[in-house]
Amino acid sequence: MDQKYAEFVGVDSVHAAVILEDSEASYLADTPEYFAPVAEIVGDTETESKTTYYDNIPANNYVSEGVTTLNMTVSGVPAQVAAKYLGKYYDSATGRVYDVGEPNPPDVAVSFRFNKGRDGYRYYQYLKGTFSGGSEEASSKKGDGIEEKTYQMTFTAVATTHKWTIDGETKPLKRIFADTVDAAFDPTGWFGQVQTPDTADAPEALALSSSSPVDEATGVDVGSNIVLTFNNKILSQSITLFTEAFAPVAATLTKDTTGKIITINPESNLAAATGYILIMTEVKDIHGQTLENQVVEFTTA
User: Fold this and answer.
1) Residues paired with 65 in a beta bridge
2) Under CATH, which architecture does the 208-300 domain have?
3) CA-to-CA dists, residue 240 to 39, 121, 203, 234, 256, angstroms
4) According to the model, what pLDDT value does residue 228 have?
5) 3-class SS of residue 141
6) In this structure, what DSSP letter does residue 34 have?
7) Domain map of the chain by residue range?
8) pTM here?
9) Average pLDDT for residues 193-212, to the nearest whole number?
10) Which residues are within 8 A (CB) of 46 and not within 5 positions of it... i.e. 6 or more apart?
């Protein structure tokens, strides 16, 4: 049988990522993390079909789609991870989860893959939804062996608020999936970032495109802001301004709407005729790429 028609024979690699922004302007998610070893995923999509009749015959059929529910059976979920995705409070100081009975789960993106036939896969990305459930069950050990109990989680997927151009129309997205048997599909890096239409092509390597002032600039105005421009949208960063004596300078960091331009605004004017050092570490883009540490030095007028 042609492998493109192969049955599903396994499932693995469940990953989850908290959605940081889903708006008309932008869709941004954290870097996916491994969720738990999975035994089974059963998906069910709510659909409704209505037929209209004219001249005593069925004339039109209208189909609408609701949420998609993924019922997951996993070996177990660490308490800290369960708290994060079920909207419970985890106290890192004591290692305890405090469940007040009022869940507030974050919006999450979920990805995984099904084994398809002998050596193929179908990759899935659900772009938005929430976890619920987390049913726990255990039974007493018996002399004739141990009866293992698994952990049940439910993920309810919905469409995003953000819209992309799909087949010439601007629409939200619920999921993306693809088969490895399709020569056009490259699964490389699927779990390294949340997949969207924007991630279909390999991203450029993260780089600092420009800085103002430039490195080793002199005569910089004491009232100037420092502006950094990157080639990719930035997810997280650690950026600190120091005097030449390595005393930290209080400043506010802001990003523009593209997420590529970061402005460092000192809380007060810089000192005249003084050297400053801007140090960038742990700069990560939305594709999960990390920039090597960067330094910009300049001297004020």
Assistant:
1) 47
2) Sandwich (2.60)
3) 45, 44, 27, 16, 18
4) 98
5) coil
6) E
7) 3-199, 208-300
8) 0.73
9) 91
10) 65, 66, 67, 68, 69
